[in-house]
Amino acid sequence: MRVRGAVLREAGLPPPYAESRPLELCELELAPPGPGELLVRIRAAGLCHSDLSAIDGSRPRALPMVVGHEAAGEIVALGDDVDDLEPGDHVVLTFVPTCGSCPFCLQGRVALCEPGAEANASGTLLSGARRFSTPDGEVLNHHLGVSGFAEHVVVSRASAVWIDPGLPFEIAALFGCAVLTGVGAAIHTAGIVEGDRVAVFGLGGVGLAALLGARLAGASQLVAVDIISEKLELALELGATDVVPADEHAVERVRALTGGGAERVLETVGNERVLAQAYAATRRGGTTVTVGLPHPDRQLTIQAVSLVTEERTLRGSYLGSCVPSRDVPRFVAWHAEGRLPVEALLTHRLPVEELNEGFDRLARGEAVRQVVVFPSSSERG
Q1: For residue 380, what pLDDT band results from cuts at 50, 70 and 90?
Q2: Count of CB atoms within 10 A of residue 333's CB?
């Protein structure tokens, strides 16, 4: 079938992207779903720093690529061997397709699925196939098995989680990355429990979701750190007890506010300098969790002996250490109960034609979560 999608051909073009236009909206050919795959009409897709890192080249990906990895939509057709979903079902798409049989999947650590990681690095679906091409036959890569900035996509069944059709698509999309990553990092990776003092460095969509997760887990103190005053104000509205500007005094202020450092500190920026600050703001015996994605060449420098003498823990968190089939429904239920007000993260809705401008806004820090909203087939006429 013929669809429109946003294609990235060259990483590292200079901003402003409204002028350099790294994302080109193209007419594409989409092959039908193979065994174990779904054809999904995308209804909403979020703009994430992981997309921006592919655009600016700090996170190298297989190019050319149909971009987007945080999305929700409606199933149109099923490939062979899919018998637990139906056309018309609403689904959230997640960015690690899980095989279910590798050693990590069998341990319940599906974010580390080895075949899923290999497929994502290669720009394929879990099956190894590529379903997008240009009208003249050029094969295009998938972005983390999703490629959500397209009107229709083919994805692995393992990339999709059924959701209640009452959840608006623009909110549902956030559960595919921002909410899974942030809330999961707070609850699963950091292991925040009632009474913990918590600090969050970086208040984008993932950072504010982590703050919501920490509040839900019962943190007694929540210190939010960012360079942008509007995000600090939003953090207070969402439950932060204290806010700290991200300047050269940030670590000192966090430690003073928390009486020597927070028990759990989360870093969501993807910058090794900020991660070092987060580690320095963690108290003796505490845990520092990072979900950011610095360029692979970047190195972290910390006081190595403190890991032993202070019994410190430094952990990475991918996909929030979540199991999407378990955690997406659970997090959606918490949202329905009013315990996870993730709608507060959604600051902009835009058409797919304004993607480049949206990524300029994201790069300047002027948005929390922006969502491309695709019209339904009836709305398109």
Answers
A1: low
A2: 12
Question: What domains, with CATH codes, occur in the chain?
Answer: 2-176+341-380 (3.90.180.10), 182-318 (3.40.50.720)
**Alpha helices, H only, 123-245:** 169-172, 178-184, 205-217, 229-237
> Rounded distance, CA 303 to CA 285, Å?
14
Query: Can you tell me the mean pLDDT for 301-311?
Result: 96
Residues in the chain: 381
Rounded Cα distance, 209 and 293, in Å: 17
Backbone angles phi, psi at 323, to 5 degrees: -110, 100
Strand, helix or coil at 101? coil
Nearby residues of 41 by Cβ (< 8 Å), 6 or more positions away: 73, 74, 75, 76, 151, 152, 374, 376, 377
Catalogue the long-range contacts made by 353-358 (C-beta closer than 8 Å, 24 or more residues apart).
353/25, 355/6, 355/23, 355/25, 355/47, 355/149, 356/17, 356/18, 356/20, 356/21, 356/22, 356/23, 357/17, 357/18, 358/47
Mean pLDDT of the chain: 96
pLDDT, tens digit (0-9, with 9 covering 90-100), for 41-64: 999 999 999 999 999 999 999 999
| Per-residue pLDDT tens over the stretch 130-154 | 999 999 999 999 999 999 999 999 9
Considering only CA atoms, which of 188, 213, 152, 204 is closest in space to residue 316? 188
**In this structure, are residues 246 and 227 in contact, taking their beta carbons and an 8 Å threshold?**
yes
